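Batch manifest, entry 17 of 40.
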Amino acid sequence: MSTNENLSRSSFWSNLFKNPIEKSDLEHVLLSMPPFKSLGKHYLKQLMELIHNRVYSVNEHVFYEGDPGIGLYIIREGKIKIYQSIDGGERNELAVFNRGDFFGELALMDEAIRSASAVAVENSKLAVIFKPDLDYFLEKHPKQGIAILKGLSQMIALRLKLLDVEYLRLYKLYLEKSEGKTT
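Output type: structure tokens
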């Protein structure tokens, strides 16, 4: 794998928490995700009522880099590509997600702008948990809210740890190349 491919396939963007068996049932997908796996049926049902469904056509953007982060997306059907724009209009592909995958979880933790764009590669159906809806749920059920936020924090922490490892590996590779060594 080339250095460019290594950079564009960052572990930060990989879906580390996907259940190995793709499930069409959204409830099962939610229960496979760390933020929601400890929710009881009663609370899970309430959370499911807050979920919005969206449909995207091929090449339709879910969001653009620089947009406000407003929610977590779960792919029910289809395929979504995450990319960043590089000077000159070139796109650096970061990840491609399929049914059962999720993305945009940082938007549930902060109010920052999107660091990348998401575009449908195939006709896609997404379930969305918008931040204001989750905030309402957290206020209404603080004990379950703590568990959800703890799960989100664990996901982000693990991705950052893996990113650190990947960064060091790439840095060593860079140093070897700049010193004229080959691997």
